[in-house]
Design goal:
The protein has an eight-stranded mixed sheet, with helices on both faces. It is an alpha/beta fold and about 280 residues long. It has 13 helices and eight strands. Strand 4, helix 4 and strand 5 form a beta-alpha-beta unit. The radius of gyration is 20 Å and the shape is globular.
C-alpha cells in the first residue's frame, strides 16, 4: 500500500533537470520556507549547470538522475518533453513505489507517464508558465487516482510557492498550456513592439526602452507588476524575455514566427505600424 504524505511531513524533493523552470520552483519553495536547501536534491546534464545551481541554492546536486530518483520522496521531472522518455527509462527502477512523481513536461498525459514507468504510480501533471521565474506563475495541476487528498494539497502547495495553482481536469491541460503557458511570450512581444513603435515615432530609446519606467508602468499596469517585468528582462536592450519564452524545444516553438529573433514577426510589425 502506498504511504500517504502529510502536509506537515518534511519530504526530500528531487529535481531531474535544473533549467529555468526548475530553478524558479526551487527558488519559490525555499523562499516560502516549504523545505530547506538540505531537503532538495537535483541532477543536471552538464557540470556547468550543476555548479551554478549548487552555488545559487546550496542544494545537493548530482550527476546521476537515478541517484536523485532513489533518494527523493517527491520526484519532479523538469526536463523538456522530447527527453522525458529517456529520463524515465533511466530512473524508473530507482523510483520507490510510494514516491510522488510530478511532471512539468508539456503534452505528456498521466496515462503516458504511467505507461512509461510501466506500473501504477502516484502521478501529478503540472503546466507552469515562465512568469514563475519572478514568482508570478500560473500552474494547472491534474492527478491520477493513486494520489491522496493530502498529496494533492501538498502538490498544490509546492506549485503555489512560485505563483498561483489550480486543480483542473486533464482534458483541459492543453488549453491551460496554450493560454497561460504560451501567452507570456506574446505579452512580452507586445510590450517590446510598443516600445519600438515609440522609438519609430521619435520618442527615443531612453523613454521607450531601458530607461522607460513610465512606459513599463503603462504597459504592465502598476508599479509592482512593472518591477517584475523589469526583473524578467523586458525592455532591457535585448531579447532575453523572448529567448526564454521561446526556448528551443520548449513550450513556444510553434510560435516562433511571432517571437523571431530580430523582431520580424507579423504581430510585432502590426503593432509598430498601428502605433507609429
Amino acid at each position: 500500500m502506498c504511504r500517504i504524505i502529510g502536509m506537515e511531513e518534511k519530504m526530500k524533493i528531487g529535481f531531474i533537470g535544473l533549467g529555468n523552470m526548475a530553478c524558479a520552483m526551487i527558488s519559490g519553495m525555499l523562499g516560502q520556507g516549504i523545505v530547506s536547501a538540505e531537503e532538495i536534491c537535483g541532477s543536471a546534464k552538464t557540470q556547468k549547470t550543476r555548479d551554478a545551481v549548487r552555488e545559487r541554492f546550496g542544494i545537493d546536486v548530482k550527476a546521476s538522475n537515478a541517484a536523485v530518483a532513489e533518494e527523493a520522496q517527491t520526484l519532479i521531472l523538469a526536463v523538456k518533453p522530447q527527453f522525458l522518455a529517456g529520463v524515465i527509462a533511466e530512473v524508473r527502477d530507482a523510483v520507490q513505489p510510494d514516491t510522488l512523481v510530478i511532471s512539468i513536461a508539456a503534452g505528456k498525459t498521466l496515462a503516458w507517464l504511467e505507461e512509461a514507468f510501466g506500473r501504477r504510480m502516484k502521478m501529478v501533471r503540472c503546466m507552469p508558465n515562465t512568469p514563475a521565474i519572478v514568482g508570478e506563475g500560473c500552474t494547472g495541476v491534474c492527478l491520477n487516482g493513486a494520489v491522496s487528498e493530502e498529496e494533492m494539497k501538498y502538490s498544490l502547495r509546492l506549485m503555489e510557492s512560485f505563483g498561483k495553482a489550480s486543480l483542473v481536469e486533464e482534458r483541459l491541460m492543453d488549453a491551460v498550456g496554450a493560454v497561460s503557458g504560451s501567452s507570456p511570450a506574446y505579452v512580452f512581444l507586445f510590450i517590446e513592439a510598443m516600445a519600438d513603435a515609440g522609438v519609430a515615432a521619435g520618442a527615443g530609446i531612453r523613454v521607450c526602452g531601458a530607461g522607460g519606467i513610465r512606459q513599463r508602468k503603462a504597459c504592465a499596469g502598476d508599479g509592482k507588476t512593472s518591477r517584475r517585468v523589469k526583473r524578467y528582462g523586458m525592455l532591457s536592450g535585448g531579447d532575453d524575455d523572448r529567448r526564454c519564452a521561446c526556448s528551443g524545444g520548449g513550450r513556444f516553438p510553434w510560435g516562433s514566427d511571432g517571437c523571431a529573433a530580430g523582431g520580424s514577426g507579423e504581430v510585432r510589425e502590426v503593432v509598430i505600424l498601428r502605433v507609429a
